[in-house]
Amino acid sequence: MPEQCDPHPYDALLLLSFGGPEGPEDVVPFLENVTRGRGIPRERLKEVGQHYFLFGGVSPINAQNRELLDALRKDFADHGLDLPVYWGNRNWAPYLTDTLRTMVGDGHRRIAVLATSAYASYSGCRQYRENLADALAALKAEGLPVPRVDKLRHYFNHPGFVRPMVDGVLASLAGLPQDAREGAHLAFTTHSIPTAAADTSGTPADHTQDGEGGAYVAQHLDVAREIAAAVHAETGVQHPWRLVYQSRSGAPHIPWLEPDICDHLEALHAEGAPAVVMAPIGFVSDHMEVKYDLDTEATAKAAELGLPVARSATVGADPRFAAAVRDLLLERAATERGRAPERCALGALGPSHDLCPVGCCPARTARPAAAGADWAGPAAEAPA
Ligand SMILES: CC1=C(CCC(=O)O)c2cc3nc(cc4[nH]c(cc5[nH]c(cc1n2)c(C)c5CCC(=O)O)c(CCC(=O)O)c4C)C(CCC(=O)O)=C3C
Ligand SMILES: [Fe+2]
After folding, report:
1. Topology adopted by domain 159-311
2. 128 among the known binding-site residues?
3. ipTM of the predicted structure?
4. pLDDT tens per residue, range 143-153
5. Annotated binding residue at 59?
6. Which of 3.40.50.1400, 3.40.50.720, 1.10.3720.10, 1.10.357.10 would CATH assign to domain 3-156+318-336?
7. Which of 143, 236, 273, 343 has its CA 20 to 30 A from that of 109?
8. Does the C-beta of 60 come closer than 6 Å to ligand 1?
9. Is any ligand 1 atom within 6 A of the Cβ of residue 33?
């Protein structure tokens, strides 16, 4: 087998995602799974439930993940990479533990994991590692073999993630009314998180104080800068841009990252911006946050203001993203074999670490998390 297509030591890839309801009867149990023990106000839950009911109780996320699975299997087959791909979720079927049980039943013992979250944060990184720890502990408790799981590095700055978003922004600009195009602002959006979580995102060396936002904000700014520069290079126009936030939850007295996209649209309108492209760089695919918070709520806000807006495409199942996943997997496989492969990354931050160090994206209450430097295996600590 040619070195560059050798997945050894991995024997399978696991796509690890959030999960979402598939019908109206799933919505409340899904929200209960998401919010278990997290202290989200009831009012917020009712409101978010309504977003799902507006779409027939079906989250777009599962269909998007099925498309990504197809794209990954096609990419692997087209490149002679013989590696099965599985899918498991944090909050809805197929549940992570069930998928891992199937995987060990199929004989897999060394599993590479791709999370559908590109950036560092508790919700997007450590929480998935906690989910893996819980699932491995469940397997162990059932007397099943416990596989080794390795989480692939953050890919926010991988060209296979960034370039499709550049194309998306270019397509959105091209669709704006001609007289508004040149002066259009770019609003890069991501999920708001508590400023305390933002400040402790990434490795301890990345941590900041006073709401500066740590690795979470730094990584998004790096991607936003790259996209704006690529758009400038392509169109010759330097569009003004800003990183803004969406989908805030939590209690109102706790500070979360701001400004919100809707407030930002108001401010841009007030200062005379002719149009805005909303680019949801924080989301790998068209999640409910994109379909509701941007396509429904923010778009209605813009219409009320008389401000032309366009929402650019997420990466979704773009073949360049599937190729990036193959690249990340083969890169990590080579590293695990003791080689020093090329580690592809755009922007100023460079490729992210393979193994989350101790203290990376800490939880409010410490609990076991797999696939990081602080993981000793399910034998060492049983989760509560
Ligand atoms: C950073 C981040 C990502 C991106 C990284 C990643 O992709 O993982 C993300 C993704 C997602 N979040 C999602 C849904 C929800 N998130 C919630 C709540 C929260 N998210 C948070 C952060 C994030 N969330 C936070 C700090 C909370 C507060 C409570 C807590 O600390 O946990 C709630 C509860 C109600 C509400 O408060 O909104 C829901 C329903 C879905 C599925 C969408 C679909 O169905 O298409 C997806 C992909
Ligand atoms: Fe969320």
Report:
1. Rossmann fold (3.40.50)
2. yes
3. 0.93
4. 999 999 999 99
5. yes
6. 3.40.50.1400
7. 343
8. yes
9. no
